[in-house]
Design brief:
By secondary structure, this protein is of the alpha+beta class. It is built from 6 helices and 4 strands; from the N terminus they run αββαααααββ. The chain has one domain. InterPro entries: PAR1.
Length: 206
Amino acid sequence: MASSISFMSLAVLALALVVSVQSAIGGGIECENLNKDSCAFAVSSSGKRCVLEKQVRRSGEEAYTCRTSEIAADQLKDWVETDSCVEACGLERTALGISSDSLLEPQFTQKLCSPQCFHGCPNIIDLYFNLAAGEGVFLPKLCEARGKDARRGLGEVRSSGYVAPGPEAIHSERFTIAPGPEAIHSRGSPLPRQYLLLTLKKSSSQ
């Protein structure tokens, strides 16, 4: 009898907890209600991605605000990214804005292309797949290129825009950098005014 009462009490408590959580988020995630530790990489109930912005007040105090961007996630809604995926993909909880600039960083792309991230974190991969596509890059090919010749990945893209192939490469690979669309930036913390447009082209074998 006592065990039955105890079980019912736990069930009622669990139900009350679920109801209170749903009430707190209003039945869905709104970017403007998220704090700085949950905003970046989140997706609202409308399917739009959340963007973390930072303002520095006259007193020097930093104030963070979560905003709804115009970038739509692919078939994702009401999503707050897990700590495990943020870490596995080489990201930071307090990342500001949304930019493709990080695709030029070899350490980041190594994490992004890792099995833990690429196959286990669909929200992040969807975001960077679309960012890469906007720059003319097919993300799986980018990861494949790094796997074939890691030393000649994006970290070695020079102002000439050409990366010579490694001795084991079957095809030469050409990376072209050109001005791209203006980056989405956070208020008070502007990102570069232009993206670097990264285009992966394959030439025929010699």
